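Predict structure. Chain length: 270.
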Amino acid sequence: MKVFISWSGNRSRAVADLMSVWIKCVLQASDPWISTKHIDRGALWFSEINEKLRDVSVGIVCLTQENKDKPWILFETGALAKGLTGNRVCTFLVDLEPGDLTDPLAQFNHTKPDKLGMWELVKTLNSCMLERSLDEIVLQRAFEVYWPSFEHDFAEAVSLNPAVEVKKRPQNDVMMEILETTRLLNRRIGALENTSDERRYSPNELSQLSHVTSRAVSMLNDGATKGDVFEFLVSSNIRGGDAKRIIENFIKSRRDRAAADDKVITENDL
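Prediction complete.
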């Protein structure tokens, strides 16, 4: 049984690394997968993660105050939700309470880092192993053996990776970004509606394009590379030429704003 563990940020990554090892100890027939350990050197980061997301039984998303609104976490969670039933996508609340989350993350099963929460998570994972699942009494004994190590290692991971203060963007900056994104979408959709290409986008595809482009802009704003964003767009059924133009339009827009503010932003900064 493959378990995909999603993370973003140092604190989330430390907890994900810990969970990958701990789950394997408790459920030896499981196969936890985490990008920090299992992506080969030279492999395309986005492509390999996207491939693994199609081939998992359970997804665990390690959420923190720092990453709960990050586009990458939202992308991986959304990709997991497409292929799995809701009760097989679990959010692990590292330093959060359920009330801290908004949709779509608020819709999933939440696990807190206490003994009861981890026991429920282990039972969920075990139930997904079908014929390889453990009897509950055996599972409980394994859990009791390894729980103290998780409790200690989790406290250490959190202590060594302090929470990052999340700075809220000024409201005017947020509104300008929304306006800029909307204008970008309108230009692209208008051009696509008038295209003379043999393959036109259907109305449903145009609606999907708006959603995907908005996500791509968020990824770029959050520091994702152009290559990762291009892979995301193409995997979302956006044609290569259109994906390239969306990224180029974003870069041009950022440059125009930088010039207006007497700042210099290069492609390496985007």
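Summary: Residues 46 and 232 are 7 Å apart (CA to CA).
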